Amino acid sequence: MFALEFMKIAFVASGVVSIIVGLIGYFLLIRREAFAGHALSHIGFAGATGASLIGLPPFLGLIIFNVMAGIWMGQIGAKLKDRDIAIGLILSASLGLGLLFLHFYTHYATQISSLLFGNVFGVTYSTLYWLIFLTCCCCLAMGFLMRPLLFVSLQPDLAQAQGISVRLVSTIFLMIVALVTAACVQITGILLVFSLMVGPAAVALRISKTIWAGIGLSILLALSESWGGLWLSWLMDWPVSFWISLLSIGIYGLTLVFGKHLRSLRIQDCYHT
Amino acid sequence: MNAVSCKELQIRIGSKIIFDRLDFSIKEGQFVGVFGPNGAGKTTFFKCLFGNIPYSHGKLEVLGQSPIKIRGKIGYVPQQRDIFPLNLTGRAFIATAIRGNRLGIPFLFREDQKEIDRVLALVDAKDLAQQPLTELSGGQRQRLLLAQALLGKPNILILDEPLNNIDPKWTQHILNLIKHIQSQQKLTVFLSTHDLNPLVNIIDQVLCLGNKTAILGKAKEVITSEILTDLYQTPMQVIKAENRIFVTSFT
Ligand SMILES: Nc1ncnc2c1ncn2[C@@H]1O[C@H](COP(=O)(O)OP(=O)(O)OP(=O)(O)O)[C@@H](O)[C@H]1O
Ligand SMILES: [Mg+2]
Fold first, then answer.
1. Four-way CATH pick for B24-53+63-222: 3.40.50.2000, 3.40.50.1000, 3.40.50.300, 3.30.200.20
2. To the nearest whole percent, how much of chain A has pLDDT over 90?
3. A205 is in which domain, residue-wise?
């Protein structure tokens, strides 16, 4: 299986991306911003198609659009009651814009399909290096941001009382989410980012009792879902993204059913024992 | 030293004046009940104490300094306390407040663990803290929030309506706990409430807020029909009996 060059690249790429996606997904859910994460990946669609139209790499357009949307979402803040409506409207507007760009850009249907549904076997060495670079940057940023982010997410009023700018922390976090969704699109495609970003984290949140156990489990599940997807697709020749989304919902369903028993196992770690 | 002193203090939100010409000072080590109708500005006043809402005129000193400088010395339990129904243990939840205002990865050192143990012991919640938050009652979570506010040994403790939705037995329990901690740690406590009754024998002073002003004094002196009618701007009646104070409105 690993004799094939593209297989090796696919494994490394999805492994690298899964680590950061698992980490970010956990915080997204703790902050109850799953919808924002979902929207961010879709907003990138207009960026990607627009970039292709003017001859730039789609990845670049994706990143630029995502980051801009991330900053905007951070600025409107969680206090806005109609936040989900605003995000949803921007999301559909940007899909509409993407459609318009596609209308002018009639060739390369395969490129669009790989943008929407992912094409991890098509990842080139240069994309791989980009993914590694992005992941390192995001991990580093999270290394700095994690402590205030956790505080702001769980106790916003208290955090504000200690002089933390809740809005600034949220905005920086959403910028990181924007970069990570752009990276995740290379693996799962725009439409299926939710599977890998939210599925593992949701399971982790349900059955872990400490922050570190949750983060660890989320990363581990993201890794096993993406590698599992690659392996199954190698066995059966069905698309990777299909398998990832199937694994994601399957594992989530299992925890809904057996979660009670798993929880009583008391997953803990050295952090709080 | 004065815990809080205001001179000619004016607090505004936007162009709306919430308080005007506040003039009072509160000594350290006092247990102050903060009383007043909805929208009187209890929460606003608290936020001003740790510098989240700047004051527009006059002078405010907390522990002899400007509010922004003493943020670390104030423990705070906010009014909106919908802890998410997370599966985290109480201990993990409390721990997120440790050095939460610094950048970095939230690792805990041995001293941090000791500090968490200390505050949990203070509120008698060591066993409670091992359980997931989803499995705790409102009153039990309240104790954890109190513990969180005590992290880092604050000099001033601000509790914004901590007794809402708590039954009379728990109310007494939590109040005794706060009183005990207050006298043991020599804290200044501000506790806002809509029901002064359970507090009467515990508090040293009442700060009555309303109608853009504040009146400070002993409960028995301040809580009178005339003063409350003035603050609430609706006819109020105060009935005093056997160390108890009942406040009712005529309407
Ligand atoms: N963000 C804001 N913008 C404008 N006005 C505000 C804002 N926050 C509060 N106010 C106003 O300030 C006044 C005081 O509000 P505050 O929340 O401090 O009252 P409170 O005494 O805590 O009331 P409650 O008992 O309901 O908690 C209210 O009249 C409210 O309308
Ligand atoms: Mg209030």
1. 3.40.50.300
2. 50
3. 5-272
- Whether ligand 1 lies within 6 angstroms of the CB of B13 is answered as yes
Residue-averaged pLDDT of chain A: 88
Does pLDDT of B128 surpass 70?
A: yes
Nearest-5° Cα angle at B160, B154 to B164: 130
Q: Which of A135, A172, A111 is nearest to A23 (CA)?
A: A135
Q: Which amino acid is at B113?
A: Q
- Give residue B82's pLDDT: 66
The confidence score (pLDDT) of residue B83 equals: 65
Is A264 strand, coil or helix? helix
Q: Pull the structure tokens for residue B139.
A: 């009153």
Res. A269: pLDDT tops 50: no
Ligand 1 pocket member B80 (CB < 6 A): no
Q: Which of A223, A214, A135, A118 is nearest to A179 (CA)?
A: A135
Decide: B225 in ligand 1 pocket, CB within 6 A.
Answer: no
Cβ within 8 Å, pair B51-A163? yes
Minimal CA separation from B155 to chain A, in Å: 14
Q: Which of B79, B102, B148 sits opposite A147 (nearest CB)?
A: B102
pLDDT value, residue B45: 94
Q: What is the pLDDT of residue A271?
A: 42
pLDDT at A134 over 80: yes
Residue that is written with structure tokens 């308080």 in the block: B19
Do B71 and A147 count as a contact with CB atoms less than 8 A apart? Answer: no
Alpha helix locations (H) across chain B? Answer: 42-49, 90-95, 110-122, 138-149, 168-185, 219-222, 225-232
> Number of structural domains, chain A?
1
Residue in B119, B131, B37 with CA at minimum distance from that of residue B77: B119
Give the model's pLDDT for residue A111. Answer: 76
pLDDT in tens, B8-50: 999 999 899 999 989 999 999 999 999 888 888 999 999 999 8
The domain spanning residue A127 has which CATH number? Answer: 1.10.3470.10
Residue of A nearest to B97 (CA): A151
Read out DSSP for A130-192? Answer: HHHHHHHHHHHHHHHHHHHHHHHHH-HHHHHHTT--HHHHHHHHHHHHHHHHHHHHHHH-GGG
Quick one: pLDDT at residue A263? Answer: 58
Q: Report CB contact under 8 Å: B89, A272.
A: yes
pLDDT of residue A79: 63
Find all residues with CB under 8 Å of B65, minimum gap 6, and list them. none
